Amino acid sequence: MAVINETHRLRDLDRAFLERYNLVGPRYTSYPTAPHFHEGVDGAAFRNQLLALTPAQRRRPLSIYIHLPFCIEHCSFCACNVIISPKMEQVSEPYVRMLEREVELHAAVVDRDRPVIQFHWGGGTPTYLNVDQIRRVHAMVAGRFNLAADAEQSIEIHVSWTSDEQLRTLAALGFNRVSLGVQDFNPRTQEAIRRRQTYERTRQIILLARELGFRGINVDLVYGLPYQTPATFGESIERIIDLRPDRLAVYNFAYLPGRLAHQRSIRPETLPSGEQKFQIFLEAHDRFSAAGYRYIGMDHFALPDDELSLAFDQGTMQRNFMGFTTRAGADLLGIGVSAISHVTNCYAQNVKKPPAWERAIAAGEFPIERGLLLSRDDLIRQEVIAGLMCRDHVNKHEIERHHGIVFDEYFAEEIERLEPMVRDELLTIGPDTLDLTFLGRLFVRNIAMVFDAYLKRPEGKQVVYSRTL
Ligand code: SF4
Q1: pLDDT band, residue 106 (cuts 50/70/90)
Q2: What is the tally of structural domains in the chain?
Q3: Exposed site from 31, 81, 219, 297, fewest CB < 10 Å?
Q4: Ligand 1 mean position, distance from CA 93 (Å)
């Protein structure tokens, strides 16, 4: 195959090539990935981890994530951990009260001096909370932790369920990043995914957010949804380009009807094939590129002057459960049902069901149901996968220096398995580095999977991942 560096040439990739790379695999918001967490890490183990930090580790900055799982309607494409209820305060009020007790549990063992450099609210729909609740949840963290003056404070919103007053309140509290789910404006697609939101309200929210000083405004789109074609998705993209968000996440729809019962209302015959999905993604890639956006990494585009784009250039972009970020070297405290913490070499995930979560907190225990203590091999592979995902290359000598290995020996089997991908021009392997090509950047999940030791373990449990195309 000739060198491929332009998307119009990718349109001619043959079906055999696409089928070869249309595998099921993780998105690598962590390595090892969450399905490999186990019950050996519980609340007590997590507490011990926090108490056993060295003085240097106790000075590390913090990132705090609050999970607010409520939504008013269940979008049929959703893969998040959500609680659907139209009852608003009746269900959110007890949750907010319990959140405060979980924040207190963390505050009791985490050094108060540690600067919080990233504070993120995700869901669900965080703006399910009313203005008073928003202020209280913010205060419960700001009052107990050292929220840095220049902290990145970000929130995910559903524009149909966010009022101007809520957005103004968030800005007054110091929120400075906002992410809007759009998915697609096409009415037929919106109807099929049970997601109704107008272009006009989306536009109003973006304009108001900008006026209020929010930066790094992000819009989420999803490709591979029912009835989408390159032409219909192209129309939605043009409308988004008119609004000029700073960042775009263009996610591949994860259709998992076997695991997610609510997705069964989506008829498989309405979905584009893997090959068609790839063409839809290329349409997005071409249109965003023509409008001045850069493809910065898996699923993500940003304007050249956006902070994330600059971090990509400087090689400082990071990936965590919230996606790509510019804030490096922080321990993550996840608060709320299903939230994941990452403290030094330990991942710990909260229970997913509210009753069990409440019981643990009421008993004064961290509500952890599973996690993982990272081994040396996990840490080595984690760094390789982070290099592929965030920098498009891996510096062998850095990995050797950090971990005391000889890269080509340690990964001899992986390098052999990468040979067909080298022939397909997804990457080059030199004496010093592994470098992704333009094509390889689009198939980075496939390359990262070669380094994932858990995918090779026959004794491992069956994990349901989405397809890479
Ligand atoms: S609003 Fe978001 S989190 Fe809630 S159901 Fe829809 S996609 Fe899922």
Answers
A1: very high
A2: 2
A3: 81
A4: 20
Separation of CA 263 and ligand 1 centre (Å)? 12
- The answer to whether the CB of 78 is under 6 A from ligand 1 is yes
Q: Is 74 in the pocket of ligand 1 (CB under 6 A)?
A: yes
Residue 113 has phi, psi (to 5 degrees) of -75, -20
**pLDDT band at residue 215, thresholds of 50, 70 and 90?**
very high
Q: Given pLDDT bands bounded at 50, 70 and 90, which one contains residue 1?
A: very low
Residue nearest to atom 3 of ligand 1 (CA): 124
Based on the fold, state whether residues 428 and 306 are members of the same structural domain. no
pTM, 2 dp: 0.93
Same domain, 281 and 325: yes
More confident site: 277 or 15: 277
Check pocket membership of 80 for ligand 1, CB cut-off 6 A. Answer: yes
Would you call 86 exposed, middle or buried from its count of C-beta atoms within 10 A (0-12, 13-18, 19+)? exposed
Structural domain ending residue among the three candidates 333, 364, 388: 333
Of residues 81 and 23, more confidently modeled: 81
- Residue-range definition of the domain harbouring residue 265: 34-333
CA–CA separation, 17 and 19 (whole Å): 5
Ligand 1 centroid vs 157 CA: distance in angstroms? 10
Residue pointed to by tokens 């493809």: 295
**Does residue 136's CB lie within 6 angstroms of at least one atom of ligand 1?**
no
The number of the ligand 1 atom at minimal distance from the alpha carbon of 181 is 2
In a domain, 349, yes or no: no
Q: How many whole angstroms from 181 Cα to the centroid of ligand 1? A: 8
Ligand 1 in reach of 177 Cβ (< 6 A): no
Confidence of residue 423 (pLDDT cuts 50, 70, 90): very high
Model confidence at 461: pLDDT above 70: no
Task: Report which ligand 1 atom has the smallest distance to the Cα of 84.
Answer: 5
Which CATH number belongs to the domain containing residue 436 in this structure? 1.10.10.920
Strand partners, 342: 332, 347
**Amino acid at site 392:** D
